[in-house]
UniProtKB/TrEMBL annotation:
Domain TRAM, chain residue ranges per copy: 372-438
Gene name of this polypeptide: rimO
Protein name: Ribosomal protein uS12 methylthiotransferase RimO
Alphabetical list of CDD domains matching this protein: Radical_SAM
Cofactor(s) required for function per UniProt: [4Fe-4S] cluster
Length: 441
């Protein structure tokens, strides 16, 4: 073994799992460990797993198998780790298994199997911690767990009930990130609208100032840091109305990611969705009146058990009326341990797939129509990368990794992380094309 212990890291799953990985990596570096770039130079490997759907379970089990074959000393954490029996049944030789959001426990196991060096180089740790995202954007996790019990989801069983981070702590982290060059903060949780409920919206302190642990107050304070602030995983509760003026005033990005999953009241009830009794359409119309530039993103499930053709028609009608900007659709797939598995009237696979295709076809037209309105507009973009075709950037309507991009055809001279104004010269179903100087085309 070398003088400085080296830990390899494999990070799978959603942005919430990514943030867990960042916390563990930050603590490793804080204690003087090195992060190994490959299996062979690592003294042991941590695999942060996902267990959301069966395909993710398989990918996680494969990743553990690969780490065992290539390195041999493996600690497992993350959502699949919450099902320790499954991991051990497939890979009994792993050193230890923990659930998600368990940085302290993972560190204990690492200490047991690979003690830290005597003299940690704590000065090497940047105050913002270590990030797996590019330098110019970051995910900011404001809470863990969820108080809802959607019947298709096992996350509350894996991650527990809602536990919010005090606003002062979140703002302190955000401040460090911005000071380190982050230009876009993507606020994540399982249910962003519920932030602070578990703490009874307690007042916390940030730089000596009181801030309520509540989403409106947090969003307002984050908006003052100078970076783009994007809210993900928000449900259409009445108090979300308070966020829209902050968007209209340019304080935070006019963007809401609101996973609705369905529009038929009957299916929403079977799903036990949060805010299912709210009139989402009325709310969306009112929001757009306050903030005409609002981009709405949502995801839907086609073929949930019991979904009739009439339920599905209601969903398509909703989409036509709501004119959402960005939509994803998955066919329903049962997850081991989910309550929905016990529901009667499963929808045949071919019907699920056909409904998903119909939904996506309808939405492609809606998205293209909405994007076409941007033609000729001057918009601000954040550059992600520069290629020989120009700069690949995003505007307020594009969350990283999930939405479209803005291709800046004359952006060769830009740097990743630059925020610049461009003119939209062409539009497609998901992406925009633009130029810094439209007259030079
Ligand atoms: S809101 Fe529903 S789908 Fe989302 S984490 Fe909570 S239980 Fe799961």
């Amino acid at each position: 073994m070398r003088d400085i212990p080296r830990v390899g890291f494999v990070s799978l799953g959603c942005p919430k799992a990514l943030v867990d990985s960042e916390h563990i990596l930050t603590r490793l570096r804080a204690e003087g460990y090195h992060v190994a770039p490959d299996y062979h130079s690592a003294d042991l490997v941590v695999v942060n797993t996902c267990g959301f759907i069966d395909a993710a379970v398989e990918e996680s089990l494969d990743a553990i198998g690969e780490a065992l074959a290539e390195n041999g000393r493996v600690i497992v954490t993350g959502c699949l780790g919450a099902k320790g029996d499954t991991v051990l049944a497939h890979h009994p030789q792993v050193l230890a298994v923990t659930g998600p959001h368990a940085a302290a426990e993972v560190m204990e196991h690492i200490h047991d199997h690979l003690p830290p060096p005597a003299d940690p180089y704590t000065s090497l740790i940047p105050p913002q911690g270590l990030k797996l995202t590019p330098r110019h954007y970051a995910y900011l996790k404001i809470s863990e767990g969820c108080n809802h019990r959607c019947t298709f989801c096992i996350i509350p069983g894996l991650r527990g009930d809602l536990v919010s981070r005090p606003a002062g702590e979140v703002l302190g982290e955000a401040e460090h990130l911005v000071a380190a060059g982050v230009r876009e903060l993507n606020v994540i949780s399982q249910d962003t609208s519920a932030y602070g409920l578990d703490l009874k919206y307690r007042t916390s302190f940030w730089n000596g100032r009181p801030v309520k642990t509540r989403i409106t107050e947090l969003a307002r304070a984050l908006g003052g840091l100078g970076a783009w602030v994007r809210l993900l995983y928000v449900y259409p509760y009445p108090h979300v109305d308070e966020l829209i003026p902050l968007m209209a005033e340019g304080h935070i990005l006019p963007y809401l990611d609101m996973p609705l999953q369905h529009a038929s009241p009957c299916i929403l009830r079977l799903m036990k969705r949060p805010a299912h009794a709210e009139n989402a359409l009325a709310r969306i119309r009112a929001w757009r009146e306050t903030c005409p530039g609002l981009t709405l993103r949502s995801t839907f499930i086609a073929g949930f058990p019991g979904e009739t053709e009439e339920d599905f028609r209601q969903l398509l009608e909703f989409l036509e009326a709501a004119e959402l900007d960005r939509v994803g659709c998955f066919t329903y797939s049962p997850v081991e341990g989910a309550a929905a598995n016990a529901l009667p009237d499963p929808v045949p696979e071919e019907v699920k797939a056909e409904r998903r295709d119909r939904l996506m076809e309808l939405q492609a037209g809606i998205s293209a129509r909405r994007l076409a309105r941007r033609l000729g507009q001057r918009i601000e973009v954040l550059v992600d990368a520069v290629t020989e075709d120009g700069a690949v950037a995003r505007n307020a309507a594009d969350a990283p990794e999930i939405d479209g991009v803005v291709l800046v055809e004359d952006g060769h001279g830009l740097e990743p992380g630059a925020r610049v104004e461009v003119t939209v010269t062409d539009t497609g179903e998901y992406d925009l094309w633009a130029r810094l100087d439209p007259d030079a085309a």
